[in-house]
User: What shape does this take?
Amino acid sequence: VAIAPLQASQAAAILAFELANRAYFAASISDRGDDFYDQFTERLRLLLADQEAGRGAYYVLVDDDGAVLGRFNLYFTEDGAANLGYRVAQHVAGQGVATATVRELCQLAAARHGLRRLLAATSHGNTASQRVLIKAGFVAVGPADPADLGGKPGTWYQRDLT
Amino acid sequence: MTDIARAAVTIAGVPALLGYRGSPELAAEHGTVLLYHGFGGTKDRMKDYVVPLAEAGFLTVSLDAVGHGDRRYPDFDTIFNDQRWDADFDATETDFLQLIDDTVAEVPSIVDDLLARGWARADRIGVGGRSLGGNVAYASVLADRRIHAAAAVVGSPEWTLPRAHSPHHFPDRFFPAAVLSQNAEFDEYVPAAPVRDFHAVLAPAYARAPEKIQYLEYRGVGHFLTPELNRASREQMAAWFERWLSGSWS
Assistant: This one.
């Protein structure tokens, strides 16, 4: 299992990951909608362009066979900060995969991208994500706007990387 | 004591019992204290802690830990029993630590909900607990920046199995929260030594405000203390929150 930057060559594996876990994701975070899957190739191209332009850093967790186990995205905001978003496949949930990867990503964020602070929002009902963030050293700093969480109330978490 | 009101509520989906004088909103102006019971207990078991805190003017929020009280696991006694602990300590203890982690993970949602209802001020929130609840109190400081004071009675910041996220690994992340630890010299469940050591490593981070950490050890007693020492520990907890949450210190 390894974390690697998002690449165009991973398109089929990522789409397979998204489709296989769509219902699982929709239970805790907002569903991406049919358009996301119908226009996946174009969306991936835009994401890669974003990454190329330095607006974010997008990572994929893959197993030894190249199957995607999770996606971990850093959306650069301002002043050395980024918003973290992630999703992990149902069949590896609850095994510490997300926690370990978020910890690794925190190191990458500082060392590779020069970030000093990460923020992540999670809905109140998403206890698995709350556990992951706290175990990875994030601390709750205040309520999140439901508009940022598909209409669900939630909390912002922050981790200082310096 | 008779003028302390109690109300059963649900906060962020968690069964809770409020204790206060006047109204929850008025008491929250003084400060809000989340209270967590020990292993196998319930929110109702914290009533002895509620009295001195509510009398001091705080809004107390006693909560059922995950798997306890109104949401006790149906198979609680199968998961947690002496035989299983003896036969497979690591697996049973892992389940026990999971209870703590899951309970701590709820704290930010609870704080958000309390703030939204006007039952807390972001600068006057504390967490107190006994035994398992004491562990929750330590971890809550790391989980939520809005926790300004913690008071643990016979609890520990050091998880009983090696865990990277065990709070004792992060002494530099506790400041500026005020941390009171009360432990028993001969505690057979939660040894005092690691807590004593933890306060020693906390000290450098609190060099600017050493009065914000305090370690009290009750000599010659075990985990359950004595009635007199239990009363003393509750009064110490109330005094701690009075000092660091009510604003009288500033």
